[in-house]
Amino acid sequence: MRAQVLRSLAPVCPTLADSQFQALISHCRTASRLLCISGAGISTHSGIPDYRSPSGSYSRGHKPMQHMEFIKSAKNRQRYWARSFVGWQYFSRAQPNTAHKALVELEAAGWLQGGIVTQNVDGLHSAAGSQRCIDLHGRIDAVHCQSCGHLSPRAELQARLEEANHVWAHDRSLANPKASTPTELRADGDLELSDADVQDFEVPSCLRCGDGVLKPHVTFFGGSVPAESVEAAADAVADADAVLVVGSSLQVFSAFRLVRAASQASLPIAILNVGPTRADDLSTLRIAADAADVLPRLARTLGARYGEAPSSGLRGFY
Q1: Going by DSSP bridges, is the β-strand pair 151-153/138-145 parallel, antiparallel, or unpaired?
Q2: Residues 206-261: pLDDT tens digits?
Q3: What domain count does the chain have?
Q4: Residue 189 in contact with residue 49, Cβ under 8 Å?
Q5: Which domain holds residue 147?
Q6: Which of the four, 26, 233, 260, 315, has the lowest number of CB atoms within 10 Å?
Q7: Separation of alpha carbons 251 and 272, rounded Å
Q8: Which positions are annotated as active-site residues?
Q9: What is the arithmetic mean of pLDDT over 49-75?
Q10: How far apart (Å, rounded) are the C-alpha atoms in residues 241 and 239?
Q11: Is the pTM for the entire model greater than 0.70?
Q12: Are residues 271 and 300 in the same domain?
């Protein structure tokens, strides 16, 4: 049976004024190396909650796992992986939406020469076909051993978790859910469970070294973004001559500082986000509208810049 596509979780958006759309077209046409910085708001149509909208994770009282909470406590790791085991069965079904695909079209048509820096860990930009994407906070489809550094696929760990916790999942009717996106799904890909439900959940160790702690290959809140990702993102801003922010409130400093650096370099900055952002006062164009509507329309209007798709060579990071 084919897995059910997740329902959209996008908030209601105001209608885009034609004057703002024309200003966005001008923003893109006057840039030779446009850089896109994306956040959770671009993935809500794919069924992944954002953090700060009225229906986002924070609005529903969800508290993300902190880095040191995970590292220092086996109980916290048990709680995280139990919730992630259930949530992954939904989260892994997320597919790129029209906003992701429109950015691929803009890149192929020559309008997004600066590539993408994304705060998202869902991998949907790459799944859509983006070739020049820096995953600033990592990728949740990979698992990192904290002892030996071995990287392995999240799907591989999911199979191990299922094998070790088959009875646990069956007793709680948590195996192979068929419903659409549950209200308990969180922006980090895990799903709310009670303390009682988490008890007796078994968490395997690293297969490579035998006893290493396994952590999703993402930057948890309170953790440090890898130096190579910070450097790559800073280089992308330095190489750009204009910035387009999509679906981000820019409350997280690792993303805000990129926009601040762009502002300090006097680059024009367009922000496409439904709610307010930390960098509204730094923007030269502020648009509150739905990226899944605006970006496809933008790609159709701009068409091909050079008559053929340019080659791209920037590798993704995670």
Answers
A1: antiparallel
A2: 999 999 999 999 999 899 999 999 999 999 999 999 999 999 999 999 999 999 99
A3: 2
A4: no
A5: 56-93+142-218
A6: 315
A7: 15
A8: 137
A9: 78
A10: 7
A11: yes
A12: yes
CATH (domain of 109): 3.40.50.1220
CA 229 vs. chain centroid, Å, equals: 15
177 and 81 both lie in a single domain = yes
* Domain end (from 201, 218, 235): 218
At 33 the three-state DSSP class reads coil
Same domain, 303 and 200: no
**Neighbour-count burial for 67-102, b at 16+ CB within 10 Å, e otherwise:** eebbeeeeeebbbbbbbbbbbbbbbbbbebbbbbbb
Cα(42)–Cα(285) distance, integer angstroms: 18
Contact between residue 41 and residue 291 where contact means Cβ atoms under 8 Å apart? yes
Q: How remote is the C-alpha of 46 from its chain's centroid?
A: 11
For residue range 100-140, what is the model confidence (pLDDT) as tens digits? 999 999 999 999 999 999 999 999 999 999 999 999 999 99
Domain final position from 189, 218, 247: 218
State whether residue 68 is helix, strand or coil: helix
Q: Are residues 234 and 160 in the same domain?
A: no
What is the reported pLDDT for 59?
Answer: 58
* Residue bearing the bigger pLDDT, 130 or 49: 130
DSSP 25: H
List Cβ neighbours of 300 (8 Å cut-off, separation of 6 or more): none
| 57: helix, strand or coil | coil
Q: How many CB atoms lie within 10 A of CB 227?
A: 8
For the chain, the 3-state helix, strand and coil shares in percent, each to the nearest 5, are 40, 15, 50
Q: Rounded CA gap, 69 and 11, in Å?
A: 31
Rounded distance between C-alpha atoms, residue 160 and residue 163, angstroms? 5
